[in-house]
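Lab notes, practical 5.
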Amino acid sequence: MVPAAQRREPRRNRSTVAGLLAELTDVDDRGVHSIDAESDSVSFVSWRNHIRDGAALAAALRARLDPDRPPHVGVLLGNTPFFGTVLVAAALSGIVPVGLNPTRRGAALARDIGHADCQFVLADRSAPKHHAQDGITTLDVESADFAEELAAHLGTTAQFRTAAPDDLFMLIFTSGTSGDPKAVRCTHEKIAFPGGMLAERFGLGPSDTCYLSMPLFHSNAIMAGWAPAVAAGASIALRPKFSASQFIPDVRRFG
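Output from the prediction step:
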């Protein structure tokens, strides 16, 4: 018999986002905190329930997707837990979130949606009013209709797909400073590797809370904010839109 001190735990796949999130499936004491800007109150969802929400969303989105086209889903959301739920759904099912920049307007934003071959767009109250492109549906994730659509999939088992490190996870647009923004392919490894590296470099762990101040459609927010929190098994704190005046109070609030 191998002594307990010499036994090795099975090696988990930490080179994919799916592998990192799978470790949080049963976590109840950590998760995602969200600040309501109007009431200054904080809501909380545990990682366990966040991942369950992701399973329901993945099933609902899969039911809408055309299987003969790339599973690209436009994401036009503020920094809310629902954006995180979309990322979880991507890890679970292989849908590909497309981070859309809400500061783009009209024809420019419609161009980005079409350029990334989005089958439809998920939007909330923070989204620009005029962004629709002919033939592409916009789903209001805060509407009663969408809530009913999700309710039909509650209880879906959170079963992470077997992903390879070089599988596509997300499309994130460049800033467009030298022309129209380009959709950059972000693989599982491109997100999971910096997440694990930064979590280790800064000594992040389950007792920490990572405050994500940058918008989640931005690569730095995903690779240097969200991913390190997931890799560390830490909690996340979100404010729908960055507030310079509330940054220090928020940091103090979450320790």
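Observations recorded by the TA: Residues 70 and 117 are 8 Å apart (CA to CA). The chain has one domain: 13-253.
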